[in-house]
């Protein structure tokens, strides 16, 4: 799933490609991806792209004051096309194409979504805050006003909730998903199950630094990369997420996994839980 660093890099890449270009039309072969009807998708036709920005994990294309907002969900992506087919795409249950944005010079964007679970969302709105997911976002963790004190207030408010869930809840802190919450907690040497309001002052300082450094460095590594390079860059720099069964790059212990109904987390027992593996309920059921 694209998270804050990848969406930030996408916004930067698309800014250079779309600035000053006119949108000729937007095709929506996967009509279920379009979540709004007023303004209609046709309101984008003939508009000039004024900028591309980010709100948490939402990508925002500002076209003459009308905004095309994309949430790429778990398996969505944006692909730049130097040349587009002359014929419009046809709806097909086998196609990964959700939207196609056609520009005035014949180039454009394909917004795709792999897999059968379709959750990519597109919104055409007059104001990004008209998108419910943006209106309910928590603070952006890379802004200047996201201080250690603000993080402390958030954690205290969340009480006994597990720190992993607090970090990735978009209404609490915007932009951090499953992958970077694993990476932040590994960098902070902290259990994903630790209660949010149980951190000492020293632990809070370590977590805050891990959060800002992990996300900041990921943004820096992604800056200047084309959209086609971002997935590989992210994967190649992960320490624990998606690396279950491999060696921790810090201590050499085996990275472990806890599986849930529709997701999983990865962690290093030596670095994060005092050498003790966390209970994996799915594996426990299989062993009974």
From TrEMBL:
InterPro entries: FPG_cat, FPG_N, H2TH_FPG, Ribosomal_uS13-like_H2TH, Znf_DNA_glyclase/AP_lyase, Znf_FPG/IleRS. Its cofactor is Zn(2+). SUPFAM superfamilies: Glucocorticoid receptor-like (DNA-binding domain) (SSF57716), N-terminal domain of MutM-like DNA repair proteins (SSF81624), S13-like H2TH domain (SSF46946). PANTHER family: FORMAMIDOPYRIMIDINE-DNA GLYCOSYLASE. Signal peptide: none annotated. Residues 239-273 form the FPG-type domain. GO terms for molecular function: 8-oxo-7,8-dihydroguanine DNA N-glycosylase activity; damaged DNA binding; DNA-(apurinic or apyrimidinic site) endonuclease activity; lyase activity; zinc ion binding. Belongs to the FPG family. It comes from Nocardioides acrostichi. It catalyses: Hydrolysis of DNA containing ring-opened 7-methylguanine residues, releasing 2,6-diamino-4-hydroxy-5-(N-methyl)formamidopyrimidine. Residues 2-120 form the Formamidopyrimidine-DNA glycosylase catalytic domain. This is Fpg/Nei family DNA glycosylase. GO terms for biological process: base-excision repair. Keywords: DNA damage, DNA repair, DNA-binding, Glycosidase, Hydrolase, Lyase, Metal-binding, Multifunctional enzyme, Zinc, Zinc-finger.
């Amino acid at each position: 799933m694209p998270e804050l660093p990848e969406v930030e890099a996408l916004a930067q890449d698309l800014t250079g490609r779309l600035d000053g270009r006119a949108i000729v039309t937007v095709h929506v072969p996967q009509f279920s991806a379009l979540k709004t009807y007023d303004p209609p998708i046709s309101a984008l036709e003939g508009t000039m792209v004024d900028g591309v920005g980010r709100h948490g994990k939402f990508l925002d294309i500002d076209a003459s004051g009308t905004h095309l907002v994309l949430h790429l969900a778990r398996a969505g992506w944006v692909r730049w096309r130097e040349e587009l087919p002359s014929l419009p795409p046809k709806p097909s249950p086998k196609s990964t194409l959700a939207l196609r944005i056609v520009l005035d010079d014949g180039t454009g964007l394909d917004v795709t979504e792999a897999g059968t679970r379709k959750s990519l969302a597109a919104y055409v709105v007059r104001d990004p805050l008209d998108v419910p997911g943006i209106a309910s976002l928590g603070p952006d963790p890379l802004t200047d006003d996201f201080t250690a004190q603000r993080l402390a207030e958030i954690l205290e408010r969340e009480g006994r909730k597990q720190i992993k869930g607090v970090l990735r809840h978009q209404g609490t802190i915007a932009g951090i998903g499953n992958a970077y919450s694993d990476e932040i907690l590994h960098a902070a040497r902290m259990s994903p199950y630790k209660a949010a309001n149980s951190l000492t002052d020293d632990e809070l300082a370590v977590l805050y630094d891990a959060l800002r450094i992990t996300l900041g460095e990921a943004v820096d590594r992604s800056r200047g990369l084309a959209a086609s390079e971002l997935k590989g860059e992210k994967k190649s720099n992960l320490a624990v997420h998606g690396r279950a069964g491999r060696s921790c790059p810090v201590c050499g212990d085996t990275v472990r996994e806890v599986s849930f109904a529709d997701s999983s987390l990865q962690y290093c027992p030596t670095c994060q839980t005092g050498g003790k593996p966390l209970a994996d309920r799915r594996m426990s059921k299989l062993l009974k």
